[in-house]
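Subject — a protein and its fold

Tokens — whole-number codes for backbone shape
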Amino acid sequence: MAEDNKEVRGQLLILFLVTFIDMIGFGIVIPFLTYLVDDLATEGGIEAVGLWVGLVMTAYPMAQFLSAPLWGGLSDRIGRRPILMIGLVGNTVCFALFGLAPTLFIAIAARFLAGFFNGNIAVARAYIGDISRPEQMASRMGLIGASFGLGFTFGPFIGGELSAPAERWEVFQGTLLETYPYLLPCLVASALSIVSLLLARTRLPESLPKDVRQGADGLDWVGTMKSSFSGLATSLRTPAIGQLVWVTMLYSFGFTIMHAVFILFTEMSPDSGGLGFTEAQNGRIFAVIGLTGIVVQGGLIRPLSKRFSSRGMLPVAVVITGVGLGAIPYATVDFPWLWLLPTCIVISMGSGIFQPTSSSLLASYAQRDGRELGGVMGAMESASAFARILGPVTGGLVWTLTVDGTGWFTYHTVFHLCAAIMVLTFLVSLRLPSEDPAAESE
């Protein structure tokens, strides 16, 4: 049994740093991804920019969904540490490839490969499970959430500030960084991955004992995928858990539609109704979103959960998010920050409340119904993965079909769609039973 000693605390610190740096690298691409796709589409004579943005964004979660069972099974056989290092090597190469991408197909391939090789978050969770007692799991898993929040605060800010350096600093003019304006943040992401790789190589010991690895089952990707779909189908048929999985899937779907089109709107020319934002300005917005999420999950969730039930907070979180998503396209070029910053803070608050609340509610339902928590959490993650795959493509397609329209179908439409999905999510969430059986019977 793992002991909470100095050695374990050191392992957790290194694991936090590895995942934190990994998330910074992932967040770095957010502010400029749309601009890079836009540039490549223009060079290739492609007009459906929104759809291609969605495809590039979808490539990463789709690859992760397909590869996660492989890396999970392989980590059971050869250990967690080698898989973490494989992911970091993949990140190092694929980030650089993305910054140097000469065509949209290469850009999609780079994002797909980055997602395929990066099973670090799931393996990091497994590592924590290896070295933790059951009563330590919740607090230690919070390290992963913290790395997400901090990574998505610093990453987009760095990515935005380092994009198109030749346009901002004379020293980069006439260099490779002028030809490839988004290579510098990608190289920084690669360098950070190398730092993480060195930390994992020199400071992070293996967590899975050799005798346990030798007793692990062989790799069975098909079997694992079948098990994942079977677990999802079973959970969807379970009344309370199934309804909550639907709520989570719909919420993730509406939220990731916004991911694909937010920067398409902010970068659009003011003459067309957009804000004309630069990569740096978008990076600052996402930094504010990440910071708000940290404040909500780190400082507000605990007092809110003591005063209100998870079942009561969940629909409120959906409404808050929906209001923010629907309000995005009404920002004007005259006072963009005055509208957009509060709107993004509202969205981040809704998301910051929804994520831990839905997980807490799922745990309550699983305990009440006698279901294994790992299985139902896996089902919820599978549902969210489907949503993250479908959301960006849907958003990009709707944007492409409506951006130049008039009347009911304009660039506002896709954000209205996000809000409409949140209305549907809210209605489904109202049917959720209480997590307290006694309160429900009353």
Remarks:
- The radius of gyration is 22 Å.
- The chain has two domains: 1-219, 224-442.
- Residues 37 and 53 are 6 Å apart (CA to CA).
